[in-house]
Design goal:
189 residues, Cyclic Phosphodiesterase, Chain: A, 27% helix, four-stranded antiparallel beta sheet, 4 helices, 37% strand, globular
Length: 189
C-alpha cells in the first residue's frame, strides 16, 4: 500500500468557516494573486507528518490518544488577518488565534512530543496557531498590504476544541482533498 500524506489538525466550527468564507470572497476582488483555501478545508495544523505507511496509522492514533487524554476541551477565537513570513515577503495569508492560543500551543507541544517518540521530526519553526486562508502566487507586497489593511483585527468567531483529527491529504489539480483517518477526543481516558 502507498504511504498516506498525513497531518494532525484542529477543525473550526461551521459558523467560523462561513465567516472566513465570506472574508475570502471579499478578498478575491483585490489585485493580489492568491490560491485561496476552500471553506471546508480550513483547519489549524498541529503537525504535518508527511508520508506515513498505512499500517502505522493505528500506532500514530494511539499515541495521539495518549497525548490528549489529559487535555480538557477548550475554546479558541480566530482573529486578525496577516501574512507569513511578513508583509514584505508574503507567501501565506492567515487568520490568527487570540483567546485559546496558549492552550493550542500546549496541545500542539504534547502531540509533537508523542510523535517524536515514534520517530516523526518536529517542525524547525516554533508553532504559531493560525488558519491558512491563502497562498500568495506572484503578487507585489503592496497588493497584499492593501488587501490586509483594515482587516488586521477581523474577528471570525470562536470554536470549541473537543477533538483532534488525523487526516490524509491527496493533492490534486483543484487543490488538496482531505480524508479523515481518525477523530480523537480530548480529555478521555
Amino acid at each position: 500500500m502507498l504511504p498516506l500524506r498525513t497531518f494532525i489538525a484542529v477543525n473550526v466550527a461551521p459558523p467560523v468557516e462561513a465567516r472566513i468564507g465570506k472574508l475570502i470572497n471579499a478578498l478575491r476582488n483585490s489585485r493580489a494573486r492568491v490560491k485561496w483555501v476552500g471553506e471546508r478545508n480550513l483547519h489549524i495544523t498541529l503537525q504535518f507528518l508527511g508520508d506515513v505507511p498505512p499500517q502505522r496509522i493505528p500506532e500514530v492514533c494511539e499515541a495521539i490518544k495518549r497525548a490528549v487524554r489529559e487535555v480538557d476541551p477548550f475554546e479558541f477565537n480566530c482573529r486578525g488577518l496577516g501574512a507569513f513570513p511578513d508583509l514584505e515577503r508574503p507567501r501565506t495569508l492567515w487568520i490568527g488565534v487570540d483567546r485559546g492560543g496558549r492552550e493550542m500551543q500546549d496541545l500542539q507541544a504534547r502531540i509533537e512530543r508523542c510523535m517524536a517518540e515514534l520517530g516523526f521530526r518536529p517542525e524547525a519553526r516554533s508553532f504559531q496557531p493560525h488558519l491558512t486562508v491563502g497562498r500568495v502566487k506572484r503578487s507585489h507586497p503592496e497588493d497584499i498590504a492593501d488587501m490586509i489593511e483594515g482587516r488586521q483585527d477581523v474577528n471570525a468567531g470562536a470554536t470549541l476544541v473537543s477533538e483532534v483529527t488525523v487526516y490524509a491529504s491527496e493533492l490534486g489539480r483543484e487543490g488538496p482533498t482531505y480524508t479523515v483517518l481518525a477523530r480523537l477526543p480530548l480529555g478521555v481516558e
